Structure formats: structure tokens, C-alpha cells
Amino acid sequence: MTEISEAEWKQRQLGRTDEAKFSGRADRAARTRIHGIIPQHFFSGASSECRDLFIDGHFYGCISLAQAVAEGLTRYLGDFHKIGARKDPPVRARRLFKVNVISRDSLEALTTIWGNDRNTFHHLNENIPTDYLTLERRAEQCVTALYTIESELFAYETHDGGLRPKNPQYWSFPDSQHVMTNLRLSGY
Q1: Which residue(s) pair with 180 in the sheet?
Q2: 81 pLDDT band (50/70/90 cuts)?
Q3: What DSSP assignment string belongs to the chain?
Q4: Torsion of the alpha carbons at 180, 172, 35 and 163, rounded to the nearest 10
Q5: Pick the CATH number of 45-183 from 1.10.8, 3.40.50, 1.10.287, 1.20.120
Q6: Which candidate in 109, 127, 131, 181 could, as Cys together with 145 as Cys, close a disulfide (CB 3.0–4.6 Å)?
């Protein structure tokens, strides 16, 4: 038998691990969706990672990041619409709903993401869930709720190869022919 290098051994082990995890990843990918194009903002990259974390089985990261993205989104909207409540995301979300910036569906989706466990995950409190299936369900709730919010806020249609945002005020247009976007793989 030929000796292999430590690097090659690690590569083989990672390959076996990836193969073992594949069916779970494929199932989680099939169960969730992502809004394919969102505007380029400070929260865009993090938002794009939420579903990837879920698919890869990183549920603590998915939940915590989705909660942070929800806070970032409401802070962005609150600042844009001069809503206030900078330090209280749930109050800010209710105010955004009250002035018709977000729908009841988005308000409920934000409430779902924050749940009653925001501090538990962000501060890794001792009562944090540890059951794998409980974490998977909670992470899926967060990813699904984030999709609901982004699909509403960043709705768009395509026309003649171009993108027409439903709410153009949330998108950056460097000129009359272009829009700054964050493209996400939605095909898996």
C-alpha cells in the first residue's frame, strides 16, 4: 500500500464527508427558495449566505445570521423612511407595517425570524436548543421567512433583458441603464 500525504488523506476524508451529507443537502435545497436578485446593500452578502448555511446544515449560523439580516433590513428601511426605533427592531418593524412600508406577511415573517429566541442565539445562552431536528426546523423557518420579506421588498420583473424593480427606491441606479444587484443562485 502506498503512503499518502496528510493533505491527500484530508482531501479524501472531506470527500467522504461531503458524499455522506449530500442527500440531506439536496433535500434542504429542494425545500427552500431564495429571491434570485436583490439590490446591492450592506446586508446583501449576508442575506445570500443564510440559505447556503441552511443547505449545508449549519443551523446555528443560519438562524443567527437570518436574525441579523432581518435587523439590518428593518434598519435600512427605518432609516430610508425615517421611522425611528433604531435600537428596537420589533418596534421598528411594527412602525414600518403601520405606515404601509411592509405588508402583514412581511411583519409576520420578521416576527418569525426573531421569534422569542433572538437573544438565545446571539448570546449563546445556556438554554439554546441542541436537538438537530429542532435546529433544522427553526433554521428552515428563518430561511423561508427571509424569502417572504425579500420577495415583497425586492420584487422585480424582467423586460427585454432588463430588470424593473417594483420598489425602485430600494435599488441603486448608477445611471439610467443600470442597476446595482446581488445575484444569487436560485436553481438549487
Answers
A1: 172
A2: very high
A3: -----HHHHHHHHHHHHHHHHHHHHHHHHHH----SEEE--TTHHHHHHHHHHHHTT-HHHHHHHHHHHHHHHHHHHHHHTT---TT-HHHHHHHHHHTTSS-HHHHHHHHHHHTTTHHHHHTT-TT----HHHHHHHHHHHHHHHHHHHHHHT-EEEETTEEEESSGGGSEEEETTEEEEEE-----
A4: -70
A5: 1.20.120
A6: 109
Which of 139, 141, 146 is CA-nearest to residue 54? 139
Identity of the amino acid at 55: I
Q: Which residue has the cell 435600512?
A: 76
Structural domain boundaries of the chain?
45-183
* Burial (CB count <10 Å: 0-12, 13-18, 19+), residue 89: buried
pTM for the whole structure: 0.87
| Residue range 102-134, pLDDT digits in tens | 999 999 999 999 999 988 998 999 999 999 999
From 179, 175, 186, 184, select the one nearest 165 (Cα to Cα).
Answer: 179
